[in-house]
Design brief:
By secondary structure, the protein is of the alpha/beta class. It contains 8 helices and 6 strands; from the N terminus they run ααββαβααβαβαβα. The chain has a 6-stranded parallel sheet. β5, α7 and β6 form a beta-alpha-beta unit. α1 runs antiparallel to α2 and α6 packs across α7.
Length: 197
């Protein structure tokens, strides 16, 4: 009873005076956001009923401004964002480097972003039919991509298969690529090493 009275008095005090110190001392912090994490194909969490699901895919190794903007714009296409997260072997095969963060670490980072509702860690995929099965499991209403998506035709077929649409939500911004960030960091290290010698 005393705790509730204190909370009511505190809320009234904050609204009348705007005193943030009181707010910080007596109001509990908001709950920490954590998106559901699952593994394809065995443990894909179910999507809550009645939600407009948007599916995006990618590596998301070093989260940067371009990633955040893409995820935010994609989420606006619906109200439940599912990220299909490529495995480490995909990074090695297609990006020709080892990932900075392994797949589980990348999933954990994404799960803490408020815009992400679910992360699906993909196993190594072997072409169109594997991705089609993923789309059948998630059943999105929208598959969001960036302009210049190299697999656009395949994604359009997969979307049509479940009655979804593909939406190009933004242009690809190569300025904010993981490759550019890594190159920039390497140049800084090389320059610093040259100065110290």
């Amino acid at each position: 009873m005393f705790k509730i009275s204190r909370l009511i008095v505190g809320s009234l005090f904050i609204s009348l005076t705007g005193c943030e110190v009181f707010h910080q001392c007596y109001c509990p912090p908001p709950p920490e956001h954590r998106a559901a994490i699952g593994a394809y194909p065995a443990q894909v969490p179910p999507v809550p009923y009645g939600r407009k699901v948007v599916l995006v895919g990618g590596v998301f190794d070093i989260i940067h401004h371009g990633h955040l903007e893409f995820l935010e714009v994609a989420k606006k296409q619906g109200d439940y964002l599912v990220v299909a997260l490529e495995p480490d072997v995909f990074v090695q095969r297609h990006k020709h480097r080892d990932p900075v963060h392994n797949q589980l670490q990348r999933a954990e980072i994404l799960s803490r972003l408020a815009v992400v509702d679910q992360v699906v860690m993909l196993s190594p995929m072997h072409g169109y039919n594997d991705y089609l099965r993923l789309v059948e499991m998630v059943r999105p209403q929208v598959i969001a991509v960036t302009e210049g998506e190299p697999h656009l035709k395949e994604k359009e077929k997969q979307a049509a298969h479940v009655g979804a649409k593909v939406s190009t939500v933004m242009m690809r911004d190569n300025e904010f690529s993981t490759r550019n960030i890594l190159s920039h960091l390497c140049l800084k290290v090389v320059r610093q090493d040259a100065v110290t010698y």
